[in-house]
Amino acid sequence: MRKHRCPVCHGAVKPLFSDGKDYFILQGKSPDFGIDLCDACGLGFTFPPMTDEELSHYYPDDYEAYVPKRSFSAMLQTWKYASDISMIKKHVRGGRMLEIGCGRGEFLFEAQKHGFSVEGIEPSASGRKFAQDHFGISVRKGFAENAHFSGRYDVIVMRHVLEHVNDFQQCLKNIARNGLLPNGILFLKLPRMDSWEARYYRKFWSGYDTPRHRVHFSLRGIVSTLHDLGFSTESAQQEIVPADLIRSIGYRYHSKGPSIRNIFGLLFTHMPSAFKLVFAQIVCILLSPLKAGRMIVTARTDPK
Q1: Average pLDDT, whole number, for the chain?
Q2: What is the share, in percent, of the chain residues with pLDDT greater than 70?
Q3: pLDDT at position 69 over 70
Q4: What is the Cα–Cα distance from 84 to 296, expressed in whole angstroms?
Q5: Dist. CA 146–CA 225, nearest whole Å
Q6: What span, in angstroms and rounded, lies between the C-alpha atoms of 274 and 269?
Q7: Please, is 216 exposed, middle or buried when counting C-beta atoms within 10 Å of its C-beta (0-12, 13-18, 19+)?
Q8: In sequence order, which residues have a C-beta less than 8 Å from that of residue 183 and are 6 or more positions away?
Q9: Mean pLDDT across 198-224
Q10: Helices (H), the chain
Q11: CA-to-CA distance for 34 and 131, rounded, in angstroms?
């Protein structure tokens, strides 16, 4: 049953939209999904509620996070890993790192090269096997909300994981109480629902990714949530990802279909991939003052 109260502050919520689809896996041929928005918390919540078992059908074996990237995409991904690790090292120089939802272990492998002692937690059997077979990294089976910590860590990483978690508050509480050393950091990467991309593309914005994304964060929403659960925010910055814009344009075009009114979508979807990437990069940079579609937040447990 759909709830009309915010699960965080219990205030009233309003529907942002109620006719969204799974555009990523099912190409729009899915039941309707919606998002309720809590203005007080700055958070959004996907409805209807779904159990982990129900959601598992929306994570097929060839889900993007489970399949290795190749050629140019792999090179870009490695560059992103290096950039993220550089940001982390501004806060901690090294030590024990745990990645929750580590996928195939590629980020942990790069972190290991930079001097971190690494561990991972991942529900996907294929992801765990890939990490072991290719990188020699032993990854434990588990979900974010019930992760058990083997000791405490200097860094806990969640890259585009928290938005997938039904009980995201419990996940953060566990990290605050049991996961981090006194001077350790939490490194989060999240879609940003108060971005220009979300406002313009609405239900077609790739960052909503219904029904897989269960909770949606504005910058105010994640900072406030972290504070309430015992964290203090160290830094917050936006991240430009042109591939997100390319997907949003594609979702909108394929849902509305070819027409004179949708001539831009028609032209864009038939551009060569390299032109799409360059175009999207330019647009994202020019519009970045209006808030990009992703954000990176670093936090520490509050000593108080």
Answers
A1: 90
A2: 93
A3: no
A4: 9
A5: 19
A6: 12
A7: buried
A8: 92, 154, 300
A9: 96
A10: 52-55, 71-89, 106-113, 125-135, 168-174, 196-201, 219-228, 242-256, 263-269, 273-286
A11: 35
- Residue 191 β-bridge partners: 294
Specify the amino acid at residue 98.
L
The per-residue pLDDT for 304 is 55
Structure tokens given for 231: 């964290």
Burial 151-172 (b: 16+ CB within 10 A, else e): eebbbbbbbbbbbbbbbbbebb
Rounded to 5°, angle at Cα 6 from 5 and 8: 140
Q: Which residues does 137 contact at the CB level (< 8 Å), separation at least 6?
A: 105, 108, 109, 112, 118, 119, 120, 131
What CA–CA distance (Å, rounded) separates 123 from 7? 25
How is residue 66 written in tokens? 């489970």
In the structure, what pLDDT confidence band is assigned to residue 59 with cuts at 50, 70 and 90?
A: confident
Whole-angstrom Cα distance, residue 158 to residue 180?
13
> Which residue bears the tokens 């609405």?
202
Among 154, 60, 73, 163, CA closest to 114: 154
pTM of the full structure = 0.92
Tell me the two tokens of residue 127.
């992801």
**Both tokens of residue 81?**
């890993």
Write out the two tokens for 32.
């309707």
Show the domains of the chain with their CATH numbers. Answer: 14-301 (3.40.50.150)
